[in-house]
Amino acid sequence: MKFGTKAIHAGVTPDPSTGAIMTPIYQTSTYVQKAPGKHQGYEYARTKNPTRTALQDSLAALENGKYGICFSSGLAAMDAIIKTLKSGDEVIATNDLYGGSYRLLTKVFGQFGIASHFVDMGEPTNIESLINKNTKLLWVETPTNPMLNIVDIKAICAVAKKHKIKVVVDNTFASPYLQTPLDLGADMVLHSATKYLGGHSDVVLGAVVTKSKALADKLAFIQNAAGAVPGPQDCFLILRGIKTLHLRVERACQNAAKIAKFLKKHPKVDNVYWPGFSDHPNHKIAKKQMRDYGGMVSFDLKKNKESVAGKVMSATKIFALAESLGGVESLIGHPATMTHGSIPREERLKVGLTDSLIRLSIGVEDVTDLIADLEKALTKA
Question: Which domain holds residue 210?
């Protein structure tokens, strides 16, 4: 089954009681049992909900996995994965990653004795020197947030398997429409489904997909025990969003390509970060493991000052100044003070995240309007 067909049909069936083509929102906290222990597969809604089950099945199909587990947010999903480790275990993560992920690894799990090391994974051999007997997990983002670096998933997984280490790929920026990390050897795929999977900036939700029953069972246990589960309305909204995922991401990719090329030629713009450029450090890897180059573009200004970047971001009319990404509307943001504010400045600068870096989430509007909006903002600044 091709992706576009899976996006619409996988994991969902018409409601057997009414024939409703859309999965119902099972807005219930509990389920009536015929006798103690005799039920129809559902006992309590924290543990299971039919709307959530449909979403989990859909996500598993899209990522070519077997098991999907949904959580109340992307960070809740990450929290559950790290909880499969124990004190003394170590994580190696890419050094360019979402600020919330950095904060969770360092400020929360660091105090419980789970150490994290951050390294440039653009070259897979860079992780070898950090691997030791305590290394249990590799945390990969690709494309990375916000520098749009590309990590060779297959090569990273080959190194991990040699050392019997699990690999998680945060696939939020790409979505399963652009890449499927499980097919390249990853053990788990994580999504902030808030972003491209939902696609309409109206829901917060996270998910993990795996082919491993053992990992799925662990995560489902944590999901139920800790209780960070999404509500049925949220699951319904993600199911609805998935049906147009391929159409939205395809358009966003087309728009992003034109905007990246426009920015690269602009006299006020310095570096433009987008994996589709032939001179991008890992362009060939992106071309090999992705269907397209994504709807995210980052750039910094020749006047490398936060104040100038602020003027640009405040001057746009179509691009909305806001955190998040992956919605139908275009967003503009300042990672240094917004999404990555929890990462120390010296660490941000090491990966090229300057004070003037601007991150764009390209939506599905008419690209000529988007380019005109950026042109006016850059001219005004």
Answer: 3-242
